[in-house]
Amino acid sequence: MKSEGDLGGAARALLDRDEVEGVLSGAFYTPTDAPRSRAKGRTTGAATEPGAAPPPERPQHYKVICISMYTEDLERLDEMVSALKARGMTKANRSALIRHALSQVDLDKIPKGI
User: Fold this and answer.
1) pLDDT tens-digit profile of 46-79?
2) Model-level pTM?
3) What does the H/E/C string look like for 51-84?
């Protein structure tokens, strides 16, 4: 069995700290006054108390999504992020690299068998 320190190192190698903190701060550590529905993650229909502050608005400029990727593609992505960080781009992460790659895509050059 691996020690807790070994598992922490593996998690750090796999997960980007900025991305994890962003998700956790928006989803888990944001206080709410109203109970939340488990099924949809929305506040229940209960009326707000008079004088209570309205819930903060969620950011509309991005969404947290889940995609599946082959392990070898993830390894390549992580190697590229590590290379960027070694070049001094300390804020490089998976999301930023994928966003940059999307901005470079020429749809006319995509093979038909994609």
Assistant:
1) 555 677 888 888 888 989 999 999 999 999 999 9
2) 0.51
3) CCCCCCCCCCCCCCCCCCCCHHHHHHHHHHHHHH
CA gap 90, 75 in Å, rounded: 19
List the domain range (segments joined by +) for residue 93. 4-30+60-109
Contact between residue 92 and residue 84 where contact means Cβ atoms under 8 Å apart: yes
Instruction: Please give the tally of structural domains in the chain.
Output: 1
Domain contains 67: yes
Kindly state the tokens that stand for 21. Answer: 């903190």
- C-beta atoms surrounding 77 within 10 Å: 16
Task: Read off the amino acid at residue 102.
Answer: L
